[in-house]
Amino acid sequence: MKDIPDDIRKTLDRAERLEWWSLGFLLSIIVVMYFAMGSSQAMKTAWIEDTLSLIPPILFLITRKIETKPPTRFYPYGFHRVGSLGFFLSATALSGMGAFLIYDSGSALLLREHPTIGNVQFLGLDVWLGWLMIAALIYSIIPPVILGHKKLPLAHKAMDKILHTDAQMNAADWKTGAAGIAGIVGIGFGFWWADAAAAGFIAIDILRDGLRAMRISVAELLDGAPRKLDSPDIHPLVDRLGQHLERNASGMTVKIRETGRFVRASVEPDSGRALPEDQARRIGGEDDAWRLIAVNRTLTQELPATGADRSEGSAAPD
């Protein structure tokens, strides 16, 4: 894609390779966890979380292919915001599944379900299934945690929210594994409630991540001001660009919104519609004039000719 700098393109290419590695490891983890799951609620919840972990890397790989497509008549601004849509879908899936798993584990506690972990034959030996579950959980922790820590700096550099959500989920997988192990050990000591409690802890963590991501993604889809990667707080770029552009456009208001990993700035009058209604009628016709509220143009040529100013001005045309 022409408007992505070479260093950002290389960062995204590296992230793409890591996501393929993630898919390979996650598929193997899902298979191992499925066969070791038994009747443990915590293992089932951890297995579902691992399955959900497939969504962000798949969406990242899909959006990487789509966002590079050139603008068309139907999509004149290009496909930069496909990442925003993918981020919203992954956040919705996380939130929905987190809520369901909280209900599932809560029901198990209320109904006082007593899970049992028996013995299995393994290499000719009679082995407690709990040891195999713990081994599976340890395997489910190590690859994602390593990959997650590798993805985080790439997500910050490329300002990619899907990649950042994926990296956070991977880097925090140790909590899922630790909760699952605690639940299994609790069953082994006769604490029937430990399994469902551990499942609830995992589910609450899933829901928390999903709701935080959903709050950020909805703001982006509603043309909200650019948010930070890891919180719904407004990104410092907004104040920096706004103050700079307002100095060079007196009597105007600067509105900055996010389109995927990019931002766009509109410079409009302080009050009223940005385009007078009579002008809108001349441009758009009588019937549709009310729909045309602004016509913007780039300000690059009107800004001071310093290198720093040019870079800020070109980052925010609409």
TrEMBL record:
Ranges for domain Cation efflux protein transmembrane: 25-222
The keyword Transmembrane helix is annotated on this UniProt entry: yes
Membrane topology: Multi-pass membrane protein
Pfam annotation, one family: Cation_efflux
InterPro entries found in the cross-reference section: Cation_efflux_TM, Cation_efflux_TMD_sf, CDF_Transporter
Subcellular location, principal: membrane
Entry keyword Transport: yes
Record keywords: Membrane, Transmembrane, Transmembrane helix, Transport
Signal peptide: none
Membrane spanning residue stretches: 20-39, 45-62, 82-103, 128-147
Subcellular location: Membrane
Protein name: Cation transporter
Organism: Paracoccus stylophorae
